[in-house]
Amino acid sequence: MGCICWTEPNSTHAFVLSVFSVIVTACAGIGGCVAYGVTGSSLMLCYGLENLVDFLSSVVVCWRFFSPGGTTSAHEADLRKREKRASLAISFILALLGIGVIVASIEDFTHGEETMANLRRIILTAVFSVIVFGTMTAIKFHYAKMLQSASMQKDAICSLLGTILSGSLFINSLIIMEESEAWWLDPLIALGCGTAALLIGLRSIYRAYVIQGIPVCNPKWWLTSQGDGTDEFTGRELTPEERGEFAEEKESEMVGPSGNGETNANNEERAGEEPESEIV
After folding, report:
1. How far from 144 is each of 63, 72, 81, 128, 272, CA to CA, in Å?
2. d(C-alpha 17, C-alpha 149), whole Å
3. For 148-179, b where at least 16 C-beta lie within 10 A, e where not — what string?
4. Residue of 210, 198, 137 whose CA lies nearest to 167
5. CA 18 to chain CA centroid, nearest Å
6. Residue 1: what pLDDT?
7. What are the φ/ψ torsions at residue 254 (nearest 5 degrees)?
8. CB–CB of 255/246 below 8 Å?
9. pLDDT score, position 238
10. Whole-prediction pTM
11. What was the pLDDT predicted at 44?
12. Rounded to whole angstroms, how far apart are CA atoms 142 and 50?
């Protein structure tokens, strides 16, 4: 038998993964921007910006799976009501990520080739990132499938783009060290990844706003929406239990008309008592 966090993940496991992702992406994002300030490497700027946007995506998923009350069916139903908003929020973040990567890749083109000292630092950073972000990407996609979570799936796409960018950063840095005229390969791949992220994000936003008629520009919807009764991952209708209706009915049955359950308790006590003899 494998680890339960892999074979039977729940909201708590997803939340822990997201917290780890928040910490890693925050460190990588800040580190990339600091490295850009020190070395002037536009590739490190692209790396830092991508991770900062990925950080926002992980924060949204943290909110989606945050359940201090536990992982009962009632809590799971409440968490599921956040899925639509979380998924759409990450769609906006994906679009933002795409714009940021496209801008950074254009900066790479205008900057030209990197110095040899910068390339060595970039290679070390890229190797670390491929291992860490590649692992997180695999786990996130697995959790998205097991938990039927579209928001986790989109967060996995953000991590996947980061892994691809880091991998291209590593490979292209090696190529550039041997053939400096090939410096344009990395910004070209980054431009492709940025375009893909932008299109994925805009497609989801268009589908929600135009086709489904969701008021994504209305702050009230973001604050009060309880979902649309469908599974964001598969599009199927949620069952009453998944919507939390059964849990509410059971709770109402446990509580009497007075609201504190005393009536039911009194009825049970009276049922167990023997009837008093009639006085003639």
Report:
1. 15, 19, 16, 24, 51
2. 14
3. bbbbbbbbbbbbbbbbbbbbbbbbbbeebeee
4. 137
5. 7
6. 47
7. -75, -25
8. no
9. 62
10. 0.75
11. 77
12. 22
Q: Are 51 and 44 in contact (CB under 8 A)?
A: no
* Amino acid occupying residue 175: I
Q: What is the 3-state composition of the chain as percent helix, strand, coil, each rounded to the nearest 5? A: 75, 0, 25
Taking phi over 0 as left and psi of -120 to 50 as alpha, with beta for the rest, 213 belongs to left
Domain range annotation of the chain:
10-247
Report how far apart, in Å, the C-alpha atoms of 71 and of each of 58, 153, 233, 247 are: 20, 20, 20, 13
Q: Which residues are registered as beta bridge partners of 237?
A: 230
Which parts of the chain sit beneath pLDDT 70?
A: 1-2, 42, 69, 71, 113-117, 179-180, 228-280
What CATH fold (topology level) applies to the domain 10-247? Alpha-lytic protease prodomain-like (1.20.1510)
Query: Cβ(6)–Cβ(61) under 8 Å?
Result: no
How far apart are alpha carbons 170 and 175 in whole angstroms? 9
Q: What is the DSSP letter of 255?
A: S
Token pair belonging to 76: 């799971």
pLDDT of residue 190: 82
DSSP 261: S
Backbone region of residue 261 per phi and psi (left: phi > 0; alpha: psi in -120 to 50; beta: other values): left
CA distance linking residue 1 with residue 19, whole number of Å: 26
Nearest CA to 83 out of 208, 233, 184 is that of: 233
